[in-house]
Amino acid sequence: MTVGAADANGGRPKAKSVIFINGDGMSAAHREAARLAMTGLDGRLAMDSLPYSGQLSTSPHDPKTAITDSAAAATAWATGHKTYNGAISVDVNKKPLATLGEQAKKAGKATGIVTTAQVTDASPAAWFSQTVDRGQQDDIARQYLEVSKPDVILGGGEDWWLPAGTPGAFPDKPAEDPTEASKGTKGDLIAQAKKSGYTYVTSASQLKAAKGGKLLGLFSNEEMFQQREEGKGDIYRPVVPLADMTSKALSTLKTDKDGFFLFVEEEGIDEFSHENNGEKVLKSMAELEKAVKVAKAYVASHPDTLLVITGDHDCGGATVEAAEDTADESGDGISKEDGPFAIANSPLKFTIDWTTSGHTGVNVPVTASGPYASSFTGEHANTYVHEVLSKILTK
Ligand SMILES: [Zn+2]
Known about the structure:
It is a single chain. With 395 residues, the chain is an alpha/beta fold. Helix content is 30%, strand content 19%. The model is unreliable at 1-9 (pLDDT under 50). The site of zinc ion (ZN) has 6 residues, from helix 10.
């Protein structure tokens, strides 16, 4: 690079793409528990090794509560506006707001969703749709196809793409959760997706074989796991790991010369924290960490890409405690202490003590690398994510 060219870019590579990773429900306690379990006392997670870090506050603008849900939190990221819980990129007066997912598309970039939740769940939905109620997942799917048109959509939630009575690739009322069944009210949206040019896949081998273009992969009826208490039907065994979905999305989206926006999410952290299921939270954290490694490897060879890793809010109010401290200071039933869990490379152990089966208001850590990553230093409201990402996604 000549000196002149470097000057034109302020000495930095031109910012083109964003990978935004959400550990749903993930706060500092989740990251520390995973660090101890996976890397030990002197170890460091890939997600914590990015060069810039800060904190985000998460409170919503909701007349009834000070603690956010995933819908209001993702709306803050995607639109820069605080709103009420349950809102998908509409303001407190239910007026639709411009979303970064749509704006990135208008700026010529490819866009994508990867999640172990329903692809139409609140966190991905806020980037690519607007509804007054997060429960309208079939309408969110319709908006993906007809309005925001993400190029890659990978995750769970087939039930919302098909009308009742049309089971699809994943049977209605399976043994592991008899409440799961197709329930869409917008027609056969999978047929509509295929007509619109999407390659549709439902298994790991089909995903691997899919080549280029627009890609829709639905790998479960609802979430790609079963969130339950320990030993009561809790399952984390997605048919495609989060890391593999992330890898496929990146290899597909990177072909756009204008860059891309990719939203990646591990939903199990939140759902199993609601169940105060420490073992499955650690499993979900391990799967998120693998996806982070895929993203880190990508940005290592693509310095034009901003990588951001955070959580939308805390879930569970967990603390990481010494295993020698056997008193269960808070709660009973599902909120009693989990563990002890082994610390990697150490004879010591830790426990996870829960205070709630709901969300809490503590700040979440944010780590970042690449263009504009230094902006995430310090403490900011979660709407600040929109301010930084806009610099890359809306020009
Ligand atoms: Zn939650």
